[in-house]
Write a structure and sequence with these properties.
Layout lengths: L2 E5 L2 E7 L4 E6 L7 E3 L12 E7 L2 E7 L4 E7 L6
Antiparallel strand pairs: 1-2, 2-3, 3-4, 5-6, 6-7
Length: 81
């Protein structure tokens, strides 16, 4: 697990699997998870990194693929915020 955040009543996790990073969302405090797409692919390993943060209904996702860094901020639907 590389990052974990609470967005409203939902939990968002990012993790690498050795080949790339992925993101999952849990609407029930971690009882069940479903994969959600990332805005771009990020390889896992070397100089790459990914982090996630939440505030209210807003999710912030940060990635670094070893060559460039990116930041995304989105409103999460159904977050109750």
């Amino acid at each position: 697990m590389d990052g974990l955040a609470v967005v409203g009543a939902q939990v968002v996790a990012v993790a690498g699997d050795g080949g790339g990073y992925g993101m999952c969302l849990s609407p029930d405090a971690g009882e069940s998870w479903r994969p959600v797409g990332l805005p771009s692919s990020v390889p896992d390993g070397g100089d790459s990194a990914m982090a996630v943060a939440g505030a209210g209904d807003r999710l912030v996702l940060v990635s670094d693929d070893g060559a460039s860094s990116r930041v995304w901020s989105v409103r999460v639907q159904g977050s109750g915020g």
